[in-house]
TrEMBL record:
Organism of provenance: Nocardiopsis aegyptia
Pfam (any one): Abhydrolase_6
Domain of life: Bacteria
Every AB hydrolase-1 domain range: 18-250
Assigned GO CC terms: membrane
Name by which UniProt lists this protein: Pimeloyl-ACP methyl ester carboxylesterase
A GO molecular-function descriptor: catalytic activity
Gene3D superfamilies (UniProt xref): alpha/beta hydrolase (3.40.50.1820)
Length: 269
């Protein structure tokens, strides 16, 4: 993966902060959070390869958590981001932790990272990946109509939002444009299901936060996360689902700021 092709949005000034989205998402998911951090940090919201405006790797190139971690590491080196704070959600959370293991990150704050699910949950992910591959062969106009049905929208709210009944959740729906044969989403799902974070030292402050209403990666996964990253500060985000930046951006911002300031105290002391 060519790091020069990774697209991002850079705003603010100060120590760099890299923000990494989840599977199928894009950099704009951080806007409600990043706006409050611009006075303290240079916030860099990244489109991971294959999502948003960043092109996917070629079909014969490696495309998994570890190759994405390498791509983001090379992106940081390319732009001179030395020991940046790294923030991630879901897939982006795993990449952030791996960057911490490699010594690239100055701090790591993650929300519902992949890599800590039990065998049954990973089996469910593989089944979902198989279903997504089947849906990929359905014409786009049909998928769009199905995604807009009341049942599909209700399921999307239940899976993705902490409070499915809230007014803010009303417009939630599954994105279906990425469900095409050979698409980045289809390619990555089995890699996500197979990935497991291995316990290794991370020599920087780490916060692992989980929404207590996460129905995509269950909050019980936080137990495995605590065992494998024992020095991490563990946080439960009350009322939040799998994408807490949408459910409670204020709390998400507070957790990011806490971790960053812990690292900044070490740097400047």
């Amino acid at each position: 993966m060519d790091p020069t092709l990774i697209r991002c949005e850079r705003r603010g000034a100060g120590r760099p902060m890299i923000m990494l989205h989840g599977l199928g998402d894009r950099r704009q998911c951080w806007r409600s959070v990043s706006a409050d951090l611009l006075r303290e940090y240079e916030v860099v919201c990244v489109d991971l390869p294959g999502f948003g405006s960043s092109p996917a790797p070629e079909p014969d190139e490696p495309y998994d958590v570890h190759s994405l971690t390498t791509a983001v590491q090379e992106f940081c080196a390319l732009h001179g981001f030395e020991r940046p704070h790294v923030v991630g959600n879901s897939l982006g959370g795993a990449i952030a932790l791996e960057l911490g293991v490699r010594g690239v990150a100055g701090s790591v704050t993650v929300f519902s990272p992949i890599g800590f699910s039990d065998a049954l949950a990973r089996l469910g992910m593989r089944a979902a990946g198989g279903a997504a591959r089947l849906v990929g062969h359905v014409p786009l106009r049909v998928k769009e109509r199905l995604a807009d049905t009341a049942a599909a929208r209700a399921l999307a709210r239940a899976v993705l939002r902490g409070n499915p009944a809230s007014p803010q959740a009303r417009e939630t729906r599954f994105a279906v444009r990425g469900l095409e044969p050979g698409s980045p989403f289809i390619r990555m799902v089995p890699r996500v299901a197979a990935y497991s974070f291995e316990a290794r030292p991370i020599a920087c402050p780490v916060t692992i936060a989980w929404g207590d209403r996460d129905r995509t990666l269950l909050p019980t996964s936080a137990i495995a996360a605590h065992l494998r990253v024992p020095h991490a500060r563990m946080v439960s985000l009350i009322g939040c689902g799998h994408i807490p930046m949408v459910d409670d951006p204020v709390s998400v911002t507070e957790q990011i700021r806490w971790t960053c300031r812990a690292a900044d105290r070490v740097v400047f002391s």
